[in-house]
Amino acid sequence: MICDVLRAGTGLFAARIAFALAATTKEPLAIVIAGRNAARRDWLTSAANARARIFGSPARFAGEDVDLLAPGAADRLVETTAPRVIVQAASAQASAVIARSGDAWSRLVAEGGLSATALTQSQITMAMARANTRAGSRAALINCAFPDVVNAMVAAQGHAILSGMGNVGILSSVFAGALDLDPARLKVLAHYQTLAPFRRAPGDRAGARAPRVWIDGREIEDVFARFAGVKLTPEPVIDISGATGVPLIQALCAGAPWRGHLPGPEGLPGGYPVIVSEARAALDLPNGLTRGEAIAWNAAFEASGGLIVEADGAVRFCGRLRELLDARAPDLAAGFPISDLDAATARSSALRAAMMNETDPGPRSFMRP
User: pTM of this prediction?
Assistant: First the structure.
């Protein structure tokens, strides 16, 4: 089934994207919802079509049965749907892990950081990116599975990646909403790790690293004080994040330029203000901030504790995450060349499966990113 937008995944985040498209799309769009959970996929398709009728939208949704982890499945899906935009929102690792407890894997993620999930998060995205490349890179690829980190791996393997959605877009949206501000006046530089402080009470944010925020070209000195009234949910903020990329999807389908905030644009680490034109993202930084400075600021978060992709394609775990992995899987903790990503992902998936079966009743004294 030929479509404008191929939306892979049937989880809660994927649902928010579909429902926002159904309510806000003003021009005819054919949207395919692809996934292996037939009951969930069929329900999302029915619900999205119903919402489109409620809001008078000409968007039309159809379901496609596919197991994206099966060999060749992503290639067949991309070939048969020939989308203009691929929105990859499926993952072998649910984002709800940040609110989970009681097993050894969730403790490792909480203590070592969300980059512990980066390899399993990359699995389906890599399948879609490779399929898109083999199809001639006809579609703009938006990856919703941990884009601040995963998109760098996609780019390092030589595949085109436009961006992700959410993360920096969450913060830019809540900041604009809190100040009742035209989003065009706001520019935010934010790594996904800067969301964590806003899950805490305002008095508990001291010492945490804040995002950088500019209003009308002037940088705010104390971001936590200015946005003390902003508090995110402990679980993933899908009520906002799933909507942040919808205007971008619509602009891409219309062939129109778009300005906003995106994580992982063109495979860069972290999130930035950007301008998207002709399915390419360019940084739209405030005066006085260079591209190199913005990238280095974002990259420093993973370098101090997470996963980084070096210029030569070496993938390296850093900080506390490396220490924790070294105690359980020293071969994985040592890092690997990007060409060995599939083998490393299989190793990470096996470790995750084993640790999820280990009970961990210990107290939680740390804060998940």
Answer: 0.94
